[in-house]
Amino acid sequence: MGVSYKELGLVNTREMFKKAMEGKYAIPAYNFNNLEQLQAIIQACVETKSPVILQVSKGAREYANATMLRYMALGATKLAEELGYNIPIALHLDHGDSFEICKSCVDSGFSSVMIDGSHLPFEENIELTKRVVEYAHKFDVTVEGELGVLAGIEDEVVAEKSHYTDPDQVEEFVSKTKVDSLAISIGTSHGAYKFKVKPGESVPPLRFDILEEIERRLPGFPIVLHGASSVMQEYVDMINKYGGNLEGAVGVPEEQLRRAAESAVCKINIDSDGRLAFTAKIREFLWNNPKEFDPRKYLKPARNALVEMYKHKNINVLGSANKA
Ligand code: G3H
Ligand code: 13P
Ligand code: ZN
After folding, report:
1. Is 322 helix (H, G, I), strand (E, B) or coil?
2. pTM exceeds cut of 0.85
3. For 94-105, how does the pLDDT look when each residue is reduced to its tens digit (9 = 90+)?
4. Ligand 3 centroid distance, CA of 224 (Å)
5. Under CATH, which number does the domain 5-318 receive?
6. Which residue has the higher pLDDT, 157 or 50?
7. Which residue among 190, 270, 272 is best mutated to probe the pocket of ligand 1, counting the most ligand atoms within 8 A of its Cβ?
8. What does the alpha-carbon distance between residue 136 and residue 134 come to, in Å, rounded to a whole number?
């Protein structure tokens, strides 16, 4: 056995989800790949007194290095302490696609892992998820499974079309696998191009009817919403203004996420909104300061924008502020 998350000052998601379910809010799950994103997440969540799930994809793990990430997570718990408020922090593997990567994360300090068998036939998804749960639970690491497929890119797996979660499958999946939470597909998708809408048209609403049916089948069970960036127009406009090209980028309206957060949805995944805010501010700075080449000069405003964006999400969208 390598390192336990407990030594890093992290917690698993069990207690977080229990409180989120009772309090009718959702825990933010923000993806990070680098120092500035991690600093911004911690600062925003400490300032708003929000619990948080630090989310690492397979690609992020390859980008940042697994050992480096473990110590970054340790640094994050210390930073939170130093900023003066002890918030619950989980370190979570996003879209794990094999038993091996989940095991490796459990062994190297993650407090929670996702095994995404959503592309597999139902029985195979159950078998794989169950195997991960059996291993992870030995170390008190929580596990998220997925039923239903989101359109868009899930790490290296690209799905053209989404398949909504079938409520008829959820009870069997949860009882056979013993997962701690379940990601479902109700109309969200990954990335910055979630819906094809003409100018002036509104995006199709999420399938709250499917969510309600799942809640009825699994009373009190934590549900996870992926692909939940709202693709904030202000940052899309800024990127386009300063040399980028993101025509047709559209996300999930924040009111719909607010409604989801009040339901059994206990975890809301946001990655693209962070990427957009960060890129927008870097583009703006470099456009206006063509002679500047000190990374600190352009990363600082980008990091500040992230802090504000995450605070806004915690306070106005997820309802997780003051719940730590
Ligand atoms: O669900 C996908 C996440 O946004 C992670 O994206 O695999 O490019 O790091 P990534
Ligand atoms: P977005 O691309 O909407 O931010 O979704 C992120 C996600 O689901 C990570 O697992
Ligand atoms: Zn996802």
Report:
1. coil
2. yes
3. 999 999 999 999
4. 9
5. 3.20.20.70
6. 50
7. 190
8. 6
